[in-house]
Amino acid sequence: MSTFRPSTFLRNVLLADALISGATGLLLVLGADLVTEVLGFPVTLLRFTGLSLLPFASLVAWLATREALPRAAVWAVIAFNAAWAIDSILLLLSGWVAPTALGLVFTIIQASAVLVLAELQYLGLRRSAPAAA
Q: Is the pTM of this model over 0.90?
């Protein structure tokens, strides 16, 4: 397994991803009832989305604190973020939900932000040095 020593930049991006994902997850789990009408998404979808973010945030935070990382683990985070962004847009196009204008804008902005995180993680991966043998 190919390991590497993550750059400070990559660590910071992973930590930012973990914090944002964790905060969003908590807000959706605890506040789904409050934002369902404003965003136009079903409470169940919001709550499930929040619940799915919490273990992801924990894993990414854990990765950010490791001295050396498996390259595949960071690629998995990048792939998950890319899939999340694509799935967010596909959800809007599917017709399965009827978001409000604010829900539409929120979803597009969060999908864009997640793609930016994925790109920054990729750049951080490229800047990182191989682990010492």
A: yes
DSSP 131: P
Secondary structure (DSSP) of 89-120? HHHHHHSS----HHHHHHHHHHHHHHHHHHHH
Backbone angles phi, psi at 130, to 5 degrees: -60, 150
The span from the CA of 96 to the CA of 102, in Å, is: 17
Closest CA to 114 of 90, 78, 75: 78
Give the 3-state secondary structure of residue 65: coil
* Tens digits of residue pLDDT in 39-65: 999 999 999 999 999 999 999 999 999
Q: How far apart are CA 39 and CA 36, in angstroms?
A: 5
Q: Smallest Cα–Cα separation from 48: which of 87, 1, 5?
A: 87
Token representation of residue 22: 């964790």
If you ran DSSP here, which 8-state letter would residue 4 be given? E
The pair of three-digit structure tokens given for residue 13, joined into one six-digit string? 């991006």
